[in-house]
Amino acid sequence: MSRIYKILSRAAWDEAVAQGRFDGAAIDLEDGYIHLSTGGQAQDTARLHFKDQAGLVLVALSADALGPALKWEPSRGGQLFPHLYGPLDPGLALDVRDIPLDPDGVPQLGLDG
User: Fold this and answer.
1) Most buried among 19, 35, 54, 78, by the most CB within 10 A?
2) Which domain CATH number covers 69?
């Protein structure tokens, strides 16, 4: 099983759980898909896009469980990133954990890549 990840605020995740669906953060809605990352990409995503943001969670998902709405497309540096074209069912989360910030404000995901 290939794990992929979504970084978002705890408040947004809690709202998604209450509603039974996550339609995306502002950037997801603007781009037309939900941005996800592999384990090897997630720490750079956190550093580049979530610095100094407290109250974040890391949601682990099975790429296979997302079905045909998941597309692998080139993005940062030509790497293929997982993009979900449609809402995310919070019930598919394998794990949800709080993300601590290091002293420089960089989220520390604790993933091995």
Assistant:
1) 35
2) 3.20.170.20
Separation between Cα atoms, residue 29 and residue 35, nearest integer Å: 10
Q: Looking at the chain, how many residues does it have?
A: 113
Residue with tokens 């592999």: 38
* pTM of this structure: 0.94
Range of the domain at 35: 3-99
Residue 37's contacts (CB-CB under 8 Å, 6 or more residues apart) are 4, 5, 6, 7, 45, 81, 82
What CA–CA distance (Å, rounded) separates 11 from 103?
23
Give me the pLDDT at residue 52, please. Answer: 97
CA 100 to chain centroid: 15
Q: How far apart are the first and last CA of the chain?
A: 15
Number of folded domains in the chain? 1
Is residue 61 in some structural domain? Answer: yes
- pLDDT at residue 75 is higher than 90: no
Residue 51 CB neighbour total at 10 angstroms? 13
